[in-house]
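Recap for those who missed Tuesday's class. We walked through two folding examples back to back. For each one, the amino acid string is listed first and its predicted structure tokens come directly after. Nothing is annotated here on purpose, so try labeling regions yourself before you check the end of the notes.
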Amino acid sequence: MTMPDLQTCQAAWRARDRAADGAFVVGVRTTGIYCKPSCPARHPRPENVTFLADGAAARAAGLRACLRCRPDDSARDTEAVARATALLAQGPVPLDRLAAAVGYAPHHFHRLFKAATGVTPAAWARGLRIARAGDALTGSGTVTEAMYEAGYEAPARFYRDAERRMGMSPSVWARGGRGVTIRWTVAATTLGSLLVAATDKGICRVAFADDAADLSRRFPLATIESGGDALADLAARVVAAVEVPARGHDLPLDIRGTAFQEAVWQALARIPAGETLSYAELAAAAGSPGATRAAGSACGANPVAVLVPCHRALRRDGSAGGYAWGLERKAALLARERG
């Protein structure tokens, strides 16, 4: 793997970015040690820091490994998480068996997996399973067929998972959203008109658009109606997130994607305001090192602009890459976060 450039290394080190662990190590001249970028120890003065490709390079420079963050475990940790996600893609695996398969103690691997992906191994497996159920329900099969195709053995778990993660019952999903009401409004921002749409569970769509044309694409049989005054407060809070994106938000969301997409969206939400990750680093943070292109696609599939900050993802060389709502808006949002 190619070592990131100096600017990327400095930004990851300042942010203690876990996604950068394994991409390079941080050498400290005054103490003679090297650390992971995410090491929780107090930062030394920048002029005493150097960045090296890996532990071997650091040891060749006369440095020794930090006993607190154990930087030589980074590559092994990343590989273990990647192997675990591959195993979970084949079906649910008990934690003790999953940890043994990748060579870790169960309690330690549970923490490691959650730190890398934002969710536990069990939650990751549930996400994969319900995503498969959603794909099956979108086809012509029955709810019962979708349940067994997705790997469920009993209806109770299937219906409980589906209603929580899909935002509606499986039968309604299969019928294209029949019976679900999505309310929408358009608000003005300094970056252009903003569409805000919500179900009873939370915001399902935020887009720089002035109409609701795309709301009926996924659920063509849902009821799409103007929200009017009922959405005024919610829309005002979304506008505030656009105008001051560094402030963060606690808005209720009703969004869904594949397990990998949701892991990418969670990784995006963990990036500090004003900081960025490359798409490769984002893929690693989502537990799938090397899935750079897929991470970019997950950003493109993000249904709630700004609230899930996909504008914080850049190409490895620091260039903007893509953005569904225009590169000028992407640059403007980052500039606002950086003050």
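Example two. Treat it independently of the first, because the proteins are unrelated.
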Amino acid sequence: MNVGFVVNDIDTETAGYTTTRLAVAAINAGHEAWVMTPGDFAYDPDEKIKARARHAPKDKYPNGATYLSGLRGKNARTRRITIDDLDVLMLRNDPSQDVEKPWRQNASIEFGRLAMRNGVIVLNDPNGLGKAMTKMYFQEFPEEVRPRTLITRDRDEIKEFVKEQGGRAVVKPLQGSGGKGVFMVDHATNKNLNQMIDALTRDGYVIAQEYLEEAEQGDTRLFMMNGHPFKYKGRYAAFRRMRQGDDIRSNVHAGGQIGQAKITERDLRICEIVRPKLVADGMFLVGLDIVGDKLMEVNVFSAGGLGSAQEFEKVNFAQGVIDALERKVDYMGSYLRRFSNVQMNTL
């Protein structure tokens, strides 16, 4: 199996990233694992999609650190590959990390669409990802699993919403990730609300959202794969994230701590509610952030944390993902590529 991974920047990948773990699992299973960035694609005169890509030199790696050392080292294979010859192309770059270079945000989606023409399985589906370029996508899921939300740039509307919520709400940018620009508004900080709004509206629209009291105990990151809760060797790919001190963000790189998750029937009910849309949009691997009986976010771009789930569940979930890719490639071979890319994302 020949797999391509698109990342924001090879130099900023870390050993613990989910994409790194997937590449190591692919290589250790005997597959090719080419890595490229949104700026590496080309559409050639012969109508082939090409990319400048790198491949680590060895055929086995004990961990992500040694793999990345090889990928970045002088012995790495650097080649202008034909994307159309790949079996799978995984779009693992996060557009919100490229806000200062807007041309990069859609590049992998656009070239991914072209690669689909020749039967390359592109995950997650580029057209689905195109719909999810901002957090507005979240509002397309059923109301029963979403906090009450206002999206606007009008200061008075935001202030009125906060007032309706009893003076307590969360405000954040419409486009962004990793907990950046997220503010908690309560009676102590209400006098600073104007400054918060000014800071957020400089970059676009603002989300004002109902504050969920249960968020004080953290949230659960639960992965879905192929339209179902991701379960491998009897264990759910999930972990718990707890905030530290007064910081409302539970994101790990925002200072949150992690622990083992206990998946409940309530969590699985949320998965069932969001399943139809994820399947319709061709979302292969997704991270749900759950607080109580509500979703905080649906992460479809480069959802991370499989290593954190592995730490507590003692299961190599990255291998489970590679197993799923192998099955998809087999299906495409057996059926002579008769399935659409959306169908292949969740088969």
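Answers for example two:
The chain has three domains: 2-123, 148-211, 214-315.
Residues 317-334 form the longest helix (18 residues).
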